[in-house]
Amino acid sequence: MFENLSERLEKSFKILKGQGRISEINIAETLKEVRRALLDADVNFKIAKQFTDNVKAKAIGQEVLKSVNPSQMIVKIVHDELAQLMGGDKTDINIKINPAIILIAGLQGSGKTTFSGKLAKWVKAKRSKRPLLAACDVYRPAAIEQLKIIGQQVEVPVYVEEGNLNPLQIARNAVKEAKMNGNDVVIIDTAGRLAVDEEMMKEIASIKDAVNPHEILFVVDSMTGQDAVNTAREFNERLDFDGVVLTKLDGDTRGGAALSIRSVVNKPIKFVSSGEKMDAIDIFYPVRMADRILGMGDIVSLVEKAQEQYDVEEARKLQKKIARDQFDFNDFIAQIQQIKKMGNVKDLMAMIPGVGKAIKDLDIDDDAFKSIEAIIKSMTPEERTNPVVLNGSRRKRIAMGSGTTVQDVNKLLKQFDETRKMMKMMTKGNNPARLLNRR
Q1: Rounded to 5°, angle at Cα 203 from 117 and 172
Q2: Are the CB atoms for 129 and 157 separated by under 8 Å?
Q3: Residues 26, 5 contacting (CB under 8 angstroms)
Q4: Coil, strand, or helix at residue 158?
Q5: b/e for 344-369, b at 16 or more Cβ within 10 A?
Q6: Which of 15, 42, 123, 264 could serve as 225's disulfide partner, Cβ 3.0–4.6 Å?
Q7: Which residues neighbour 257 within 8 Å (Cβ) at sequence distance 6 or greater?
Q8: Is the pLDDT of residue 262 over 90?
């Protein structure tokens, strides 16, 4: 997401390179390119114009510090304006009430059902809640079955009333069920509807009146761009929702919805979602998204993802093994598993400043570690613990067992040896557990 916008903005900032200070003359061409970049990203014209007017007002006549040049100064101003455009600060979800009722609304095909499952898993894992999913999409074929499967995946109960085609009754009964069983969050998955479908719009308004939700989330397919923003406006007039969810951020999207929607409906983006995996959901942080758009990476999110998988006691044990030169392939594959739990490898690498641009054309998928895992799993327990025994015949056997080549096995052994040496050098006087605990 935002790759094209990032490149266009970077080119526009280069216009100011070599200038002594920012003036009306030298900033005009830069802001012209910035506005074009925003319009190409499917940002509303009025919002794009207002954005560049704000940047111009803040930039003109500003004294450029000796330590920075005008292009660096404009990057800072654009960064702050982008963050403000998307909402400024992150906005939390309201689940303090027991039970907290969350109504999920949106267009057909926007990803509501998948998001409902992701949200259920998120509130369970991150907020220690006991959620209940309510299947109120009685129109789409297999919608209820889909939610049942998702419920099994995330280990969250799903309230279903087979044969009942009245979503209002199902929603009311789901809340009663939650109260009886001690579920403190009810997530109501509703049918997708078109804003022009008056009957369906009346129905979801009736569901809102029936259960009085504490949180209404409007799910938007970010790939629909400006159309999503217009639809959000119409839904907001009927539902007065509390927040927006942007889905399918991993698709070929220009990002206009993310940049425009807050200004149009004056409601915060609360979550972003990408892919089908149930853990592919994140709180929306406007400042961090601005960082990503301007190629600054997102180290804070990367560290947070690492800390979610981080175990202090295990880290201490690992450090001792490294210090004693006892780090083996069992530890190596355990670290790979930890990285995989953090999410998509390419997305993780893109959070490192400067790396996103370098890898944008590389094909790095979730199977990036597949051959490495296959090689390690083809080793005997002795070979994993004591890699020095891996002679030529053993390497040949491992290659055949893992479906790789002897060259692949040799390459992994070399990488492993280099990794072990580097880790030992890094741990001398630098306890990783202590360093992470300082954060």
Answers
A1: 60
A2: no
A3: no
A4: strand
A5: bbbbbbbbeeeebeeeeeeeeeeebe
A6: 42
A7: 42, 220, 222, 224, 225, 226, 228, 229, 246
A8: no
> For the chain, how many residues are written?
439
Q: Distances in Å between the alpha carbon of 408 and those of 136, 400, 422, 433?
A: 51, 11, 21, 33
Count CB-CB contacts under 10 A for residue 268. Answer: 19
Return the number of other C-beta atoms located less than 10 Å from residue 336's C-beta.
Answer: 15
Do the beta carbons of residue 229 and residue 198 sit within 8 Å? Answer: no
The predicted-structure confidence for 135-181, as pLDDT tens digits, reads as follows 998 887 788 899 999 999 999 999 988 778 888 999 999 999 999 99
- The token duo for 245 is 């969810």
102, 110, 140, 248 from 219: Cα distances, Å: 12, 6, 17, 10
Between the CA of residue 277 and those of 39, 153, 204, 250, 336, what are the distances in Å?
32, 10, 27, 12, 18
Q: What pLDDT score does 340 carry? A: 66
Mean pLDDT to the nearest integer, 329-346? 70
* CA distances, 141 to each of 20, 59, 144 (Å): 64, 55, 8
176-210 core/surface letters (b: 16 or more CB in 10 A; e: else): ebbeeeebbbbbbbbbbbebeeeebbebbeebbee
- Please list the alpha-helical segments (H only) found in 99-197: 112-126, 143-154, 167-181
Domains present along the chain, CATH in parentheses: 3-85 (1.20.120.140), 100-292 (3.40.50.300), 302-437 (1.10.260.30)
Q: Using the 8-state DSSP alphabet, how is residue 247 labeled?
A: E
Question: Helix (H) and strand (E) counts for the chain?
Answer: 21, 8
Half-sphere exposure of 117 (CA within 13 A, CB side): 22
Distance CA 99, CA 186 (A): 7
Binning the chain into helix, strand and coil, the percentages to the nearest 5 are: 60, 10, 35
Q: What is the DSSP letter of 68?
A: S
Most confident segment among 156-170, 196-210, 310-324:
156-170
Distance CA 380, CA 347 (A): 33
H/E stretch holding 319 reads helix 312-323
Summarised one tens digit per residue, pLDDT across range 8-57 is 777 777 666 655 566 666 677 788 888 888 887 778 788 888 888 888 88
Which amino acid, 372?
I
Higher per-residue pLDDT: 74 or 62: 74
Say yes or no to pLDDT of 363 above 80. no
